[in-house]
Amino acid sequence: xxxxxxxxxxxxxxxxxxxxxxxxxxxxxxxxxxxxxxxxxxxxxxxxxxxxxxxxxxxxxxxxxxxxxxxxxxxxxxxxxxxxxxxxxxxxxxxxxxxxxxxxxxxxxxxxxxxxxxxxxxxxxxxxxxxxxxxxxxxxxxxxxxxxxxxxxxxxxxxxxxxxxxxxxxxxxxxxxxxxxxxxxxxxxxxxxxxxxxxxxxxxxxxxxxxxxxxxxxxxxxxxxxxxxxxxxxxxxxxxxxxxxxxxxxxxxxxxxxxxxxxxxxxxxxxxxxxxxxxxxxxxxxxxxxxxxxxxxxx
Amino acid sequence: xxxxxxxxxxxxxxxxxxxxxxxxxxxxxxxxxxxxxxxxxxxxxxxxxxxxxxxxxxxxxxxxxxxxxxxxxxxxxxxxxxxxxxxxxxxxxxxxxxxxxxxxxxxxxxxxxxxxxxxxxxxxxxxxxxxxxxxxxxxxxxxxxxxxxxxxxxxxx
Lengths: 299, 157
Fold this sequence. Notes:
The complex is a heterodimer.
Chain A: H1 13-27, E1 40-45, H2 51-62, E2 66-69, H3 84-92, E3 97-102, H4 107-114, E4 119-124, H5 130-143, E5 150-154, H6 161-170, E6 176-180, H7 189-197, E7 201-204, E8 217-220, H8 231-239, H9 245-248, E9 256-258, H10 279-284, H11 286-298
Parallel strand pairs in A: 1-2, 1-3, 3-4, 5-6, 5-8, 6-7, 8-9
Chain B: H1 7-10, E1 20-27, H2 31-37, E2 47-56, E3 60-68, H3 74-80, E4 88-93, E5 96-102, E6 108-110, E7 131-135, E8 138-141, E9 147-148
Antiparallel strand pairs in B: 1-3, 1-4, 2-3, 4-5, 6-7, 7-8, 8-9
């Protein structure tokens, strides 16, 4: 049976822990540099990406394999009206695994249905982004145990797929969730219900100040300008969700700040120098975590 | 003792059929949706009788659908369970009930309901049918995880 990684919901806690353990071994340079020698990874990105795409390409290269891609969406045959199903069938013949990012939700599941090789979801619409979640968990685990931690999710929690995936995964670790988001960009009610049914404690707050002293992880997501009618209302809202050194002065000593990046105005650049700032470490962790994922699906 | 027929209630509304299927004990008012689920339109060839809001001892009011010269498959029958789980199916051959069965809620339904999520890949030109897992919470889109918790009939394709 072909192994795919489509949604973090498909993982149980044991599987996540095992994958993170493997990533840790890779991070410690304990891996076979030729494990995927001769293997080809196809990267199909129908939406912009910097970190996800490059870290998957770096991951396959570090394991001795190579990657191929279509370049821009305009340059591929989907621009001529080819269905995703046909594109996937064709690319399956060229590669040993496919990484896909697509604007439509469920696109990765469709790809998995038509592919003859393993498919990894690198983000589908506002749906799932499992590799980001795994590297988020990995980064948290570098600083603390995942069990029972207090996590603040800040920013656009409605459309931010990284927040959805992370919240789902944290429910496996009895984490407590604190949500802080502008009106209209709250965590979807269906997800809140689902997480509640899994026993997760979720509290909504008006401001990060209300909870800063209690949280272990501050997970910030980008508030997109296009969600607001004009620049003035965007700046008004965005400024009230900004993470600053002054705010972090009240935080726990071991508290960490994460961001899937790219950041715009959400985190003051002065925070970069503080020990709380782990977002560049988080980004770097994309490589060992994605190496572990590739080994899992291809090897 | 032979049950007395009531010609006033039964005769003209839902007359007996020679061969086909009688779907009984449909929730009152849902008969037209049952017909929709079965894909029967004005252009299909079945002869069809529908009785709605017929008095019922068990249900208060019920609907009945009679289809001449068509025996429903199990898959078709089970789709009815989505909107009327208490419905009963009678397969009629030569005016006699040859088979009587209830409906079972299926685990998976394909091609019957459209995903309400406009961003779902199943609402594009891809060569796939919609696919929903039937869960206690409702219909769960197998592609985008959207859940249809109520008013399923308004999403029937």
